[in-house]
Specification:
- This protein has 354 residues and is mainly alpha-helical.
- The chain has 3 domains: 51 residues, no CATH class; 84 residues; 154 residues, hpI Integrase, Chain A (Orthogonal Bundle).
- Helices cover 43% and strands 8% of the residues.
- The strands form 3 sheets. The protein has a 3-stranded antiparallel β-sheet, covered by helices on one side.
- α2 packs antiparallel against α3, α3 crosses α5 and α7 packs across α9.
- The longest helix has 21 residues.
- The N and C termini lie far apart (112 Å).
Amino acid sequence: MSIRKDEKSGVWQIDFRSPSGQRVRCSSFTTDRKAAQEYHDKLKASMWRQDQLGETPDKTFEEAAVRFLRECAGQNDYATKLRHIAYWRERFAGRTISSLTSDDIVDALPTHRVHQKKAPTPLANATLNRYLSTIRRMLNLCVTWGWINSAPALPTYREPKVRVRWESPDVIYALITSMSMQWMRDAALVAVSTGLRESELFSLTPSQIDLNQRHAWITHNVAKSGRARSVPLNDDAYAVIKRRLRSAGQWVFTRDSGEGRLITEHDKRIFKRACEEIGIENFRWHDLRHTWASWHAQRGTPLMVLKELGGWETIQMVQKYAHLAPSHMASHANTVNFWSISAEKEKTPLGIVA
């Protein structure tokens, strides 16, 4: 028979020979016999048109995915693309690229993030846009490769404006002193003194610290941009790290319990209680990095320098702090000054200055 049911899985399997004698064996990816027969008939008709009319065979989603991932190998966000493609393959396994429509893709978008110990949470538009960006890029490449004539138009969901939340030095001082554990106070102080991301901070090892040169090294496998960088230590960060190195084991930052294990994230309960104690609202750990960058911008650090200090990949990522910087154009403001000049001339007949 051209289709047969796999007794173990219940999925119908396809098995036939094309007019040229080529044997075609594959799964229909369905337990419905009618749907499997329809898929078989379409596949067989496609093989006939290829052999008899010389038509170019339709490429499957799997073929496009393999070539797409091969071309993306080595990119900083490869792991993200791999995760997205694995998700889309679950939805479009066995489908041809030319059969995918905009409605198919939008209807197949994920809706919630599943957690182990709490209820699923709806995905933000930013996350949906990342899934769409991956498959959009793959389909556009299929057009370039000549596999399809055009890619379906996909929407872009509106994302909230870039959030920049920062506090003054007095508030941050009160926040840190309100934390009940010493390791949390140390970590928060270094975070707001260096702009280190949470993963970069807690993965620091003693070998990444050079006290003589007063800097820390962030390795490429930890940096979000994928580029290693040197982070200078100011007096505050230097004092904390120097003290912790006296008793440090594998990691610079460990909990006060003495376990010495890698910390994956800050203690949210301690951080939340400290915020409540001093009356800070809507403040997160990552806002310590925003605060550090905002202080730099306010004190005149050039944005290109700030970009390197913070390990951002592009200058556009630092532009969100530009409005906080003292204007370099202020000295040119009086170029079009006229009112005070006119008033001064009124005091002197015929505008003649004595």
